[in-house]
Design goal:
Layout lengths: L6 H4 L16 H23 L4 H9 L1
């Protein structure tokens, strides 16, 4: 028996080999995307609390 699992083990979950690269959204990149979005949103809120509001500046330009 080798160091790596057999093909049967790789495809046991959902019938897919999760070691291959795919061009679909999987749970791991979704988690990182969500985390980065939360960090960005928090950074914008902190930026806005310090008086640098992009939304307010854009609204002043429009009106």
């Amino acid at each position: 028996m080798g160091l790596y699992p057999s093909d049967k083990t790789e495809t046991a979950y959902n019938g897919n080999n999760h070691n291959t690269a795919k061009l679909v959204l999987t749970p791991q990149p979704e988690l990182w995307s969500d985390r980065l979005a939360m960090i960005g949103f928090l950074a914008y809120l902190l930026w806005d609390l310090n008086g640098y509001s992009v939304v307010r500046d854009v609204l002043h330009l429009i009106s």
